[in-house]
Amino acid sequence: MEDGRWWVTYSPRSGGLNVPDNRALVKCMDDRVPLAVFIQMTEKRDRQHGSTYLVLGLGLVTSYDSRSDVFIVESIDQAALEKLTGVIGDEGSRYEVQLYAKLTNEFQPFVEEPRATYTVSSPKREEAFRHLVLKEYDCCCAICETKFHLENLIEATAAHIVPKHKKGTDDPRNGLALCHTHHWAFDVGIFSIDDDYRVLLSSRARQAETKNFSLMSLADRRIILPKNSILHPHLEALEWHRSNVMLK
Asked: 25-56 in b/e burial notation, b at 16+ Cβ within 10 A?
């Protein structure tokens, strides 16, 4: 679907809905318990790859079509995530778990406001995004590797690539850890990041009067990235920033 959601059909095991595997799916449907959904792309006998799978993400069994004898499975929505994580008392921790869960789903750079219903307050969502991003970047600026971390004192900040005021998502793939100076420079478009994760300095920035502004010497330098590649800045978000924010 255009907004990143998906749906698939799944044929139950033969033997009717009383077969244990099928009963489990019915229970997941009744209780709205999410499932991890994979699609097999190649067969075992494929000489080059063997069995390979496409990870669609977390899904919900929404219905059973008795005429076609298939279960309908749709991508998980925010309401289901809220229910699943409702046992987590701390709001910030609850939202952080939700953000990690969404990493299995297709990246969407913008929040669809009519579909976004939260039980977590906006300040707690901001806090969770900040904590997650800084943790994955080890509290270092991705551009210059500046780090100061003393208990709750952290110099680095969590930046949205597609900004919140443009309905940018809190998906950590829309995030970067940046020192205060480079956060400001990124937000105003003095630099961006290319698809190889290298610093892309605006040509207009070279016309500026500068003094002790280290960014000028960091052009083409590869940024530091989280160890887990699934948390790397998403290329779609970076392309949006280059097209819409970077100074021309």
From this structure: beebbeeeebbebeeeeeeeeeeeeeeeeeeb
Residue 55 CA to residue 122 CA, distance in Å, equals 30
In order of 16, 45, 69, 76, the CA distances from 66 in angstroms are 10, 32, 5, 22
pLDDT per residue over 77-125, tens digit each? 777 778 778 888 899 999 998 898 888 777 889 987 555 567 788 899 9
φ, ψ dihedrals at 22, nearest 5°: -75, -35
Which residue in this structure is represented by tokens 């925010």? Answer: 78
Following DSSP, what letter does each residue of the chain receive, concatenated? -TTS--EEEEPPPTT-TTSHHHHHHHHHHHHT--EEEEEEEE-TT-TTT-SEEEEEEEEEEEEEETTTTEEEEEE--HHHHHHHTTT--SHHHHHHHHHHHHTTSPP-SB--GGG---SS-HHHHHHHHHHHHHHHTTTB-TTT--B-EETTEE--EEEESS-GGGTB---GGGEEEE-HHHHHHHHTTSEEE-TTSBEEE-GGGGGS--SS-GGGG-TTPBPP--SSGGGSPPHHHHHHHHHHTS--
State residue 39's pLDDT score: 77
Distance of CA 76 to the CA centre of its chain: 14
